[in-house]
Amino acid sequence: MSISDELSNLIIVDMKNDIVSQLMERFDEEIISLEDADDPMKPSNFREEFKSFLEETIESSIKISDSTVSFGVGDEEKLGFSEELDENTTDGMKIIGTILQGIAGNYVLVTDDLARSIFGSNYTGHLGRTGTAYLMKKTEYDTGVAMHNWPSKNAWRFSNFPGIPDFFDKVELDMSKYITKLLGAI
Amino acid sequence: MKPIRLEDISLHDYIKNKVLEDFVETETTTLTYLADQSSTGSYVFGSDSTMVPLPTSLGRGWCYVDAWGDTTEQQSMVTVYDELGAVISGSNYLIDYIDGRVVCSNPNVIPYSITYKWNYISIVDEWQTVETSEVPIVVIDISGFEKEGFQLGAGKRVPRQVTFHIFASDTAERDDIMETLYDGLYLKSCPNQLFEKGTLLDWNGTFNQNYEYATISGSSALKFKDVAAKAISIPLTTIPNNEMMMLSDVNRYRARVRCEMFHWNEGW
To answer: pTM of the entire structure?
Structure first.
């Protein structure tokens, strides 16, 4: 490993922590503040999972060149920031990804527990092509409430939500802090 | 109107009438007399459209100028015929371009059919209205700004973040709209109009005959920077195991084009 690589590694962890810290601050302010406290699948339930996801994927994607620092979302396909969708992920990541992308229309979030209560013995334990949770149009769900006595549900709080497309764009790094650390290590 | 509202309308006009000018369809259909909307001296005829999406659905409407930049009402986008197939002169009627109606003042002039061009893509600026419209839809979302002063003298640079949310009916259409929007913004600009005597259409959907083209004094054109386009996918699907139903969902084929729109403004 060259000296420059070693110096880069010295500050990558600090950079990752600063980036994740700023992103989680946005997550708390712009997502958790809007959630429904009674929602069993509310975003705050997946806060730590999302943070770990960011830490793992951002650290591996940080690139330092002579004049710039860049990082990727990591597995952006899991959050929907790509045409291809990586479905090998959890309901929590899918829910957060959907919030970040935004969704038009009013929906009910159908989870495992809800599916068991509305489908009873017909429930197979694996709903939808992407896993367990999925969104059902509120109007369709209300038909089920009227015709099949499904439990009444409010629309998912993040229905008709325009998303946060710039979620990963507003990170600001204090380069002087890292330079000071690097100079101290030389 | 506030400057941001003028910028919004200027951008809307540029996107609808210039950038997406190729996404225009033509329909020839009959007209039906609408007795409930008519009165003495005002005889209203509505088009019997069979098109999908409906030309008069939210964010669409009939084409009201022949080309972007024209300051006068269209001459070639709408043609009205009588029962014998003869063209009725435009001086005999008004056109409601939003709701797709022809209004005559002379009871002896009876329109029978019509050929018109209409905007295939719905352009809206409210996310909430997407559900009530039909794809393809483009939502124009202008948000966030942080004005910066010139290095010397009075004046400022006024940047705004603009996101175009695209909702399409298939991947080909999505990619087509996405690239068209990108090309219409990259290294391009549009005039920052004053609209001192109103926009091109009046509140009732007819052409504003008082419209005057003028740009805002002391302001540069609206320029676009850092244009980026990307197809996106929604991790939570809406319909499980049912491709037929999935195709009808408005969120199925989506993309996003983002840029910074900015202009220079003189004075404080």
So the answer is: 0.89
